[in-house]
Amino acid sequence: MAKVRTQFVCQNCGTVHTRWAGKCEGCGEWNTIIEDDPTAGIGGGPSRAPKKGRPVALTTLSGDIEDAPRIQTGISELDRVTGGGFVRGSALLVGGDPGIGKSTVLMQAAAALSRRNHRVIYVSGEEAVAQVRLRAQRLGAADSDVLLAAETNVEDILATLSEGKRPDLVIIDSIQTLWSDIVDSAPGTVTQVRTGVQAMIRFAKQTGTAVVLVGHVTKEGQIAGPRVVEHMVDAVLYFEGDRGHHYRILRTVKNRFGPTDEIGVFEMSDKGLREVANPSELFLGERNEKSPGAAVFAGMEGTRPVLVEVQALVAPTSLGTPRRAIVGWDSARLSMILAVLEAHCGVRLGQHDVYLNIAGGYRISEPAADLAVASALVSSLAGLALPADCVYFGEVSLSGAIRPVAHTAQRLKEAEKLGFSQAVLPSASTELPKNGGGRWSEMESLPDLVARIAGSRNALRPAEHED
Ligand code: TYD
Ligand code: MG
Predict the structure, then answer these.
(1) How far is the CA of 215 from the centre of ligand 2 (A)?
(2) What is the residue with the minimal CA distance to atom 21 of ligand 1?
(3) DSSP state of 351
(4) Closest-CA residue to 224 (of 179, 254, 255)
(5) What does the mean pLDDT of the chain come to?
(6) E strand map for 107-199
(7) For residues 206 and 91, is the Cβ–Cβ distance under 8 A?
(8) Candidates 173, 268, 269: which one to mutate for ligand 1, based on the most atoms within 8 Å of Cβ?
(9) 35 against 5, higher pLDDT
(10) Angle, nearest 10°, between helix axes 370-382 and 446-454?
């Protein structure tokens, strides 16, 4: 028999190392590597003797396609991110920080589905039945026919699920509490989590049940995070939000049966999560005509336009290295915008601290936000407020040119709907709608925009004198 060597597995990303290390080279996280027994096997029954294979029937590419049948919850923000409802026979992972609202949203979905005469089973491994009942009462879901179990053993769960009528939806809360008899490691380790998830996925494919798995994002590496099973499931949603704020965003990260750039927006209330049909109103904050440094970005999230306020504060610094503090945007992109402002527009920020914040704790990943960020920075530096009824979008290239972005018409339509009558956008934008009362200013380059905001740059002069 081959000599068994211990291996070290990162509990965050699953990378296998031969030696222990403080930092995982796979994902860059610290203290996430723990010793693991490789003979425990990943996702299979290691102690069983290999059985002789059985031939499976081969088929052709043409033929009937069963349309992925979906079960809709009627909670439209949730149905949107799943791409039109839970898909039968698929496994969906819902990840997020502890306490963000995963159990809440899934209990609401479970109640909604059972009211539509679907058989829903909720398996809680974290909370006792009484706790889950308490939450259900709070959510007004106690009268629904959701079936409940508090169980963590994979074999017991599977045995329970295969009894009686086949369920339409099974929720496993959470994968980190699952443990299987066939592996030796402790619950929460990569091996246990993967084995449990594998078994649940197999159940989903075999029976055509939609399985929803909950996974906590863990900061310390002691238990495996949802990332170690992302590649195994059909769809991955992440629940995000700031504890200081009431709203929560459900974001699609992976979806084999739908789009991956959708978001669903919810607001946490004392009766559970409420859908937010018009997210722009949430992220806009209080608009003030007089305060410099705020620009409204007309963004897109998947198929949906979202307006959000970008706030910048530029202040002279006494430090040798000025501060760059950013919340909700990419720091590399900010450095790029600062460099372009300096190189092409004569706006020097080397002696200034720069603080950038996206209102409401929202996170922007679109390059189209460049123009709004640049406008907010220049506005703050010049001490001149931007027009309160103006939106900005466009990508800035290193040469200082403003490049067109997609979905111009949709962005402008949303802006008009929310009472904005002006827009600064890239020139050569296609699909520009016939101007219905709004004033669209097409900008070719960043220097043009700076001149427009700072009024032939007079307002920026004090800054230029400083170096
Ligand atoms: P929960 O769904 O238990 O989080 P997770 O499963 O992601 O760990 O949500 C817990 C938080 O939500 C907790 O801080 C209380 C809050 N909450 C409300 O504000 N209103 C409600 O109606 C419910 C059920 C929870
Ligand atoms: Mg929970």
Answers:
(1) 9
(2) 272
(3) T
(4) 179
(5) 86
(6) 120-124, 147-150, 169-173
(7) no
(8) 268
(9) 35
(10) 30
The ligand 1 atom at the shortest distance from the C-alpha of residue 174 is 6
First to last CA, the chain: 73
Q: Find where tokens 């992109």 sit.
A: 333
Strands 247-255 and 263-269, by their bridges, are antiparallel
Please spell the DSSP secondary structure of 174-194, one letter per residue.
-GGG-B-TT--SPTTSHHHHH
Instruction: Report residues whose beta carbon is within 6 angstroms of any ligand 1 atom.
Output: 96, 98-104, 135, 138-139, 268, 270-272
Ligand nearest to the CA of 106: 1
Question: Residue 190 and residue 173: Cα distance in Å, rounded?
Answer: 17
pLDDT of residue 465: 43
Q: What are the CA-CA distances from residue 153 to residues 46, 88, 105, 197, 212 (Å)?
A: 18, 23, 24, 12, 17
Lookup: tokens for 369: 């936000």
Spatial distance between the Cα atoms of 175 and 208, rounded to a whole number of angstroms: 20
**Strand order through the sheet with 422-426:** 324-327, 352-358, 304-316, 294-301, 390-392, 422-426, 439-443
Q: Of all protein residues, whose CA lies closest to atom 8 belonging to ligand 1?
A: 99
Q: Which two tokens stand for residue 303?
A: 């198929």
Q: Note whether 146 and 114 are within 8 A (CB).
A: yes
List the residue whose alpha carbon is closest to atom 22 of ligand 1: 272
Q: Is the pLDDT of residue 67 over 70?
A: no
Would you state the structure tokens that stand for residue 463, as one six-digit string?
A: 């800054």
Please give the Cα distance from 94 to 381 (Å, whole number): 42
pTM above 0.90, yes or no: no
pLDDT of 382-438, one tens digit each?
Answer: 999 999 889 999 999 999 999 999 989 889 888 888 888 899 999 876 666 665 556
193 by DSSP, 3-state: which? helix
79: nearest Cα among 209, 258, 301: 258
